[in-house]
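Case 427 in the screening queue. Each case pairs one protein sequence with one candidate compound; here the compound is adenosine-5'-triphosphate. For every case the pipeline is the same: read the inputs, emit a complex structure as tokens, and attach any notable structural observations.

Predict complex for case 427.
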Amino acid sequence: MPETSVPTAAGTAARTATSGAGIRLEKLTKHYPGSPAPAVDDVTMEINAGELVVFVGPSGCGKSTTLKMINRLIEPTSGRIRIGDRDVTGMDPVKLRRTVGYAIQSSGLFPHMTVAQNIALVPKMTGWSKARITHRVEEMLDLVGLDPGEFHGRYPRQLSGGQQQRVGVARALAADPPVLLMDEPFGAVDPITRDHLQDELIRLQHELHKTIVFVTHDFDEAIKLGDRIAVLRERSHIAQFDTPEAILTNPTDDFVSGFVGAGAALKRLNLTRVRDVGVVDFATAGVDDPLQSIFDLLRDGDTNEVLLLDRHRRPYKWLRRGDLMRAKGTLARAGTLVHDTVTRDATLRDALEAVLTDNAGRVAVTGRRGEYIGVVDMETLMNNVHELLEADRLEAVEHRHQLEEARARRTRAAQEGLGEGGAGAPA
Ligand SMILES: Nc1ncnc2c1ncn2[C@@H]1O[C@H](COP(=O)(O)OP(=O)(O)OP(=O)(O)O)[C@@H](O)[C@H]1O
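Case 427 output:
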């Protein structure tokens, strides 16, 4: 990654999280020298402060070019960019990048620097004190779910792809920029890590309220992450810019429907989080609890199953009454191992997958460090899916009705206008 793409600190007021700033693109155009047609042509778009907007579209449609014009890694040929109340089109690009974090697919970490040095880079360039930087690095590592003690001295090559991506995000956020640009940041990691990184980003956004522009060509990722999605066609022309719900239920044309693809109902599951449905408590026991107390729990409680937690309170095994009968004094071989858990930020689709994988009829919900929070069961999931689809259908009918009414109003107005025009209205 070129040095200029590194975000730099947002002045001195970077100690606490800054909320996002709105972004406005006005007639933005990029014509690469020697190309017959512009790569981005006359794009006008308003992104609200604190919103996560996803650009999605076919390869080569201009997503990255549009994104990189926002921090002027690519200079627009014409048009304007506003961030907050500033027109940043003519501003010194290095200064501009101090307020715009940037995370990319290959994480862009410097291989010869430790994790801590990578994260500290921008605050250091801006002249923060040593103590403040040390504190910020710890804070950032914690924020992205990496243990500061364990990771701060490592080099990028000593990290997994997912961990590198996390450090890349930590670095982009280190100087607390109000705007974060993410160019296919999770494109190069395996699907499971990708799912986790997406969950982490959602959690981060709940805490930080940045304005995030995120590029992907994976529509499922767009649905999962976006407050709004801009479906782009060639030259970044906006085919539809709306909420995931609206795009799934009311695609404006065949191009957008093609992108939504089959299985819109199932994709709908990506739109609701575990935190939005009923996470309930479940009978739990610890691995070190005496066997007798687990027996008592199963006998006296109204359940015939308990979730066994390990010493860090992480879900470990599902134990049924029958398992205990066969346990013969030790829990070592009793019960069924927990294979999959979800966080509160996981989607219902993740939860459904986990329920099916574990075949326990429910999935354990965990916190940031994998600790038990509660469970979601199959019935809750099915009821929610049913309600969601029903609500979507109603909304779609209402939307169609509104469109028809608006059309009728326009026709009436046009007819009335014609009458006045005929009576000699000014040209
Ligand atoms: N430096 C450049 N010089 C000339 N043309 C370029 C340059 N960078 C990109 N392009 C062209 O501009 C168009 C848009 O490219 P861009 O990378 O913005 O698309 P994208 O939608 O992000 O694609 P992808 O999803 O494949 O990354 C493409 O036709 C590409 O070939």
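Case 427 observations:
- Residues 378-422 form the longest helix (45 residues).
- Residues 245 and 268 are 8 Å apart (CA to CA).
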